[in-house]
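Repro:
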Amino acid sequence: AHVEVLGRTGVDPFTVPDMITLDEAFQFADEGRLEERLLRIDEALVNMPSLSINDEQTNRLKNGLRVRFGQLPTADFQPVRVYDASGEFVGIGETNGAELKARRLMSTGT
């Protein structure tokens, strides 16, 4: 047996209606419309739990410091999507319930 045609029907959580080909991406770019087809980076992480933190905690995290929550650890460190007080995606962190540490943060240019 052999495969003559192989087509991707989805990549969790995205399905065919959400996806475009590379040629379509180039066409959208040429038309100045690529931004309307691009998804926010955190949309690829929807299966990961999220955590919102306040401004002071966001500053600590962005400066490479751990954020402590003043409670006992509830588990091993697990990845989470981190959002600031205004709902902006900060990046991926790891938390054990007692503290949060940065794993990969987004560059904001500030």
